[in-house]
Design brief:
The chain has 206 residues and is of the alpha/beta class. It is built from five helices and seven strands; from the N terminus they run E-E-H-E-H-E-H-E-H-E-H-E. The chain has a seven-stranded mixed β-sheet, sandwiched between helices. A hairpin with a 2-residue loop joins strand 1 (8-15) and strand 2 (18-25). It is globular, with a radius of gyration of 17 Å. The two termini are 26 Å apart. 36% of the residues are buried.
């Protein structure tokens, strides 16, 4: 990738609907996604970038776009992973849960199995967003297996059902929230953006 600041730069433009990563001349900027009310419609946002994707003609191949979805062992992350897999993308299912949790259902392996059962392609990568080495390894593994990254869905988050008072709050818990919900996604974007730009661009949804 060219490092001449006068010729090419990695541009990341964001709006309420997500981010677009591209390699553009430094004198221009890529168009930002149009804002949408409420939560972004992830499959629609991705389909706008990759119009050839569609359920009616599912063909996973070596040229299929690749998406990383964090927090994809259950809940919204799992549903996003299933949807993207159903649209013909290679899906990297990233989360901490490899073994079934006694209180929470879902594992990365179960999500991968569901995608493959529907005819899609997926890979599980255990990832703790609070560990920088895990984040870096996630990007490397994705590139090694699928050759690049086209879509990044930062869905993983640590939430609490109830909060203690300020005086009772454990500082370690406070820091854990920031490591998972803020620093982890930033590090993942930092690692993924150069890979996306190298292949012509991509989509990031936070």
């Amino acid at each position: 990738m060219s490092r001449d600041p006068g010729r090419n730069t990695n541009a990341v433009v964001c709006s309420d609907g997500g981010c677009i990563v591209s390699r553009e001349p430094s004198t221009s900027r890529p168009s930002a996604p149009s804002p949408r009310p409420g939560s972004p419609d992830v499959p629609v946002r991705v389909a706008e970038r990759f119009p050839s994707l569609g359920r009616k003609d599912l063909r996973v191949s070596s040229t299929s776009p690749t998406a990383i979805v964090t927090g994809a062992s259950r809940g919204i992350g799992k549903q996003i992973a299933l949807e993207l897999g159903g649209r013909g993308m290679n899906v990297v299912v990233a989360a901490r849960t490899v073994e079934a949790h006694r209180r929470l259902s879902g594992t990365v392996g179960e999500t991968v199995e569901a995608i493959r059962a529907a005819g899609g392609e997926a890979m599980a990568v255990r990832t703790d967003m609070t560990i920088p080495e895990d984040v870096t390894a996630l990007v490397k593994k994705t590139v090694d297996v699928y050759g690049g990254i086209d879509v990044l869905i930062n869905n993983a988050a640590q939430t609490a059902g109830s909060w203690p008072t300020l005086v009772e709050m454990d500082v370690a818990d406070w820091r854990q929230q920031f490591e998972t919900n803020l620093h982890g996604p930033m590090l993942l974007m930092k690692a993924a953006v150069p890979v996306m730009a190298e292949s012509g661009g991509g989509v990031i949804v936070n």
